[in-house]
Design a protein that fits this description.
- The protein is built from 4 helices and 3 strands, in the order H-E-E-H-H-H-E.
- With 133 residues, it is an alpha+beta fold.
- The chain has a 3-stranded antiparallel sheet with strand order 1-2-3.
- A hairpin with a 2-residue loop joins strand 1 (37-49) and strand 2.
Length: 133
């Protein structure tokens, strides 16, 4: 009986700091970018020219300082992700073999779609890694 009580006490002590940090409503893992940053899942597009096949991967996120606009962006994330995916897939389909991706072109088109979907400017698109494999 003492062993069971000892194990329960050990589990309660071990879960104490984790439960305390989880009670704040924050993720236990550190969120990169701060409270105003919204992560967009990695976008991929297929590149094919002749016998060569590849993948264009784009990592990005949104920095939205305005709280109301941030909530609108969070609610519109499926539409934003669909628009971004279409841009990346269309661009990747026309990318020549061995060419480097034009990140400025991608960012400008994705920013334009962001402003159109959210209805007003104020959300900044931040580009992360753009890789061709």
């Amino acid at each position: 009986m003492q062993r069971r009580a000892f194990l329960c006490l050990a589990l309660a002590l071990a879960a104490g700091p984790a439960a305390a940090s989880g009670s704040k409503g924050e993720d236990p893992k550190k969120r990169a970018g701060g409270a105003s940053y919204l992560v967009v899942e990695t976008l991929v597009g297929a590149t094919t020219k002749g016998q060569r096949r590849g993948v264009l991967s784009v990592e990005c996120g949104l920095d939205v300082q305005d709280t109301a606009l941030r909530e609108r962006a969070r609610a519109s994330m499926p539409r934003l992700r669909a628009a971004y995916a279409q841009i990346v897939q269309t661009y990747a389909a026309g990318l020549p073999v061995g060419a480097l991706p034009n990140v400025d072109f991608l960012a400008a088109n994705m920013q334009r779609q962001t402003d159109a979907i959210l209805g007003k400017p104020g959300a900044r698109l931040l580009m992360g890694a753009v890789l061709v494999n």
